[in-house]
Amino acid sequence: MTVTTHMLRRRRFLPLFVTQLLGAFNDNLYKTAMVLFVVYSVYNSESAEGTFSAVASAVFILPFFLLSALAGQLADMRDKARIIRIVKAAEIAIMLVGAAGLLLAWQGLLIQAAAIPLMMLALFAMGVHSTFFGPIKYAILPQHLHEREVLAGTGLVEAGTYIAILFGTILAGWIAVEAAAALVVLTALAGFLVSRHVPPAPAQGAVEPLDFHIVRSSINLVRNTAHDRRVFLAIMAISFFWTIGAVLFIQFPPLAKNVLTASKEVASLFLVIFSIGVAIGSVSVNALLKGTVSARYSPMAVIAMGVFVLAFYFVCRTWVAEADGTLLTVGEFIAHPGAIPLLVSLLGIAVAGGMFVVPLYAFLTTFVPKTQTARTIAANNIVNSGAMVVGSLIATGLSAAGLEIVHHLLLTAAMCLISAWLGLLLLRAERAAAL
After folding, report:
1. Which of the residues 229, 269, 309, 342 has the least number of beta carbons within 10 Å of its own beta carbon?
2. Percent of the chain scoring above 70 in pLDDT
3. Is the pLDDT of residue 233 over 50?
């Protein structure tokens, strides 16, 4: 029996894995359904569509920047399983608000006055939900898993996340918006029920007072991670990776509609291919490293990612749009001569990205004391979200300035070079620590 199969059969891992999977599924079903509906049914301007997609991403990410320090403190100072259950109960209420916004938009009622504000409110609240769940899903692994299982567990969580994103994204592109409204509420209920089976994970060190000053606690939290160069560099490299991912996800819907003249189902297909690729990369790098936590393949992986981004850009630049303004169905898109090179490039971006980022998350949970793991993940989330918000603002500014959406891809390729440099510094720090 492999380590992976063994863990999936155990209560110390399976309920957490399923809870995380359902949460990621719901996040992406709701977020994608909302963005696709607004981009394809409300606005009719590439600039407005790009701006809305970027603003939606920033709204979701902002809570990570503001509240991660408090989330990390709670996760290290309180029972992680109890926090999971509280967070999943809150998800039910959040999805009721989001479903109301989707239903109003479906009916064409008060779209600007009520539907979009309700959807954005729920999106922000889901960001808060994910902020408090995020440190736990990785920090709980060293507490429930054996040392040689942590990398495999991290890979499974990451791969499961992207499989969930895959299914959530597929459904968002193919089912009616009113069906999505019902499904997000049902999924939240299922997530809460499964979360009740996660085993207890009490605080492992002295319980310290919580610091509710979000600015001071955030600065202190990030500063405290800098003492281990490997952890600090891993955080910086992950941050640039997720900035790249954020910019790509912002681009996909308006790029599919305006550059490739393709339907929302094709936009959904892009997100699906990306999710499949990251899942493949997540599992593959674990097999290559054989359970050893190392950044050995990270610099090469992100360089490959940048090359695939450039390939994706050049295919988009040579794409011949439909003359009559009609949108290609999935079948018509696949039949287009540029479709296969485009999808292969996109898959390459995602596989390389998964291979780059998974070992870096394992650095955050294996090279710090178990009493500090949640706060280390929280510090990572603060830096990640800050970088992603900056990326979203840059994308918003470029769209507002009238720069064609396809040219935004060059920004993501440039960021891959920075990530590769950080990955190389991390590899050198890893080798220096081993001497």
Report:
1. 229
2. 86
3. yes
